[in-house]
Design goal:
This protein has about 300 residues and is α+β, with helices and mostly antiparallel strands. It contains 10 helices and 9 strands.
């Protein structure tokens, strides 16, 4: 390293050192620092609104749309069930808000009759989505798996449902329904269920929780074309009804489904009964929906 001596006596004959370049450098650095400070000071107020706007946007997207709740019909259900012959279990749910409009005897256990086909079909579509089977598989006679899934809902075709029921495994499907959907009151061995469990599947079906858009559309179309029209469709001829029935002679009669009001609002309803008969169930359905229809003309 070269060492310079700064002793004055050795530089008498030299020109005085020019400090101007250093001063210019210092001045330039100083101006840059001042300029950056001014920039960030002026920038700070402009950042605040951007931050606030982003926060507001997140809060707005998390808010539930302001939907007017449907009328509560609990008193109607209570009064009807307690003053009419038969045993009833009823759940009515506003599908737009998830609000429960009525719940009566929801944990009561019933022989499911053909309501078990609702569960079989639901698991059947899930198995297809998971790649275990294909809709186009030959399944029963000349019918494909897709055709059988439709017929067991639309026509309550028992041979199709029974074959699929055995394929899924009675004990295994009972465990699947409980573990995946928390259907604690349903047995696919003894074919028993509760209104609470049925309502869970209706809400999941409507909300697209497990089925993709295509399979959900197939399921809903089968429900809409149900050929048994003695309760929900008979009580609500002006409305669109997606339902599945199950009955055991005149002892048990069940009708469960999704009802679309004229303004598009949809309601899930589960009616399970013993020794009630279809005429009483029609009357109960009309009593439930009269205030809902009046509030949503």
């Amino acid at each position: 390293m070269q060492v310079y001596s700064y002793k004055p006596q050795n530089y008498h004959n030299k020109r005085p050192k020019n400090d101007l370049p250093k001063k210019l450098i210092y001045a330039t650095v100083f101006l840059i620092v001042i300029g950056l400070a001014v920039f960030f000071i002026n920038k700070e107020p402009a950042l605040a609104p951007v931050t606030n706007t982003q926060n507001t946007s997140v809060e707005n997207t998390s808010q539930t749309p302001n939907i007017e709740p449907l009328p509560n019909v609990q008193d109607i259900v209570d009064s009807f069930a307690e003053s009419n012959a038969g045993t009833y279990s009823v759940v009515v749910t506003d599908l737009a808000t998830g609000g429960e409009l009525a719940a009566y005897g929801i944990d009561g256990s019933y022989f499911a009759a053909s309501i078990y086909k609702l569960y079989v079909a639901y698991l059947g579509y899930i198995d297809i989505q998971e790649g275990k089977y294909s809709l186009d598989d030959a399944f029963f006679g000349d019918w494909t798996r897709k055709e059988c899934l439709d017929k067991m809902i639309r026509e309550s075709h028992s041979p199709c449902a029974e074959k699929l029921w055995v394929e899924q495994g009675k004990e295994k499907s009972t465990a699947r329904l409980e573990e995946k959907f928390e259907l604690s009151g349903t047995s696919m061995v003894g074919l028993t269920t509760t209104a609470k469990d049925v309502n869970i599947i209706l809400e999941r079906l409507h909300g697209g929780k497990d089925l993709n858009e295509s399979n959900m559309a197939l399921f809903m179309d089968s429900l809409k074309q149900n050929i048994y029209r003695d309760v929900l469709p008979a009580a609500l001829p002006e409305l669109t009804v997606y339902d599945k029935v199950g009955f055991n002679g005149l002892v048990e009669y069940h009708d469960i489904g999704i009802v679309r009001l004229k303004n598009g609002r949809e309601v899930a309803i589960t009616l399970l009964s013993t020794n009630a008969g279809t005429r009483r169930l029609v009357a109960l359905t009309q009593a439930i929906f009269n205030p809902l229809i009046a509030a949503n003309q």
